[in-house]
Amino acid sequence: MEALRQTQKKYSSRAITTAIFAGFFLILIGQQAVGKGLILGTVFGIVNFVLMGETLPLRLGKSKGKTYLFSFGSIFFRYIIIAVPLVMAIKLEQYNLFSTMLGIFLIQFFILAEHVFGLISSARGKQV
């Protein structure tokens, strides 16, 4: 469980730090809607990521039917959470829809980037 929390902390910290710096930079150069959308999407992406990690242990040791029902409910609830910033970005002019979507997937981008860089560095090590 501690490894899960460390993983959540590592990727969430990277994502929110990047979103805040990029968001403030975008706001400073006059792209308020883009910056605010990026930060909004990232916050909700982090909430989704943490909820996903917190519900994983709850699925273990249960019957197949209960696990299926719990998993379906968890996914449905997380979809509702992800819909909130998307609806806000669609309805309100102060948030950019595309930057909000980018913010939602920022954690997944960091996870993927870490694995790609790890593969590249291990491939370089084998060439030497």
TrEMBL record:
Keywords: Cell membrane, Membrane, Transmembrane, Transmembrane helix. It comes from the Bacteria. GO terms for cellular component: plasma membrane. The keyword Heme does not apply. The keyword Transmembrane helix applies. Pfam families: ATP-synt_I (PF03899). It is a multi-pass membrane protein. It is found in: Cell membrane. InterPro entries: ATP_synth_I. The chain crosses the membrane at residues 12-31, 37-56, 68-90, 96-120. This is ATP synthase subunit I.
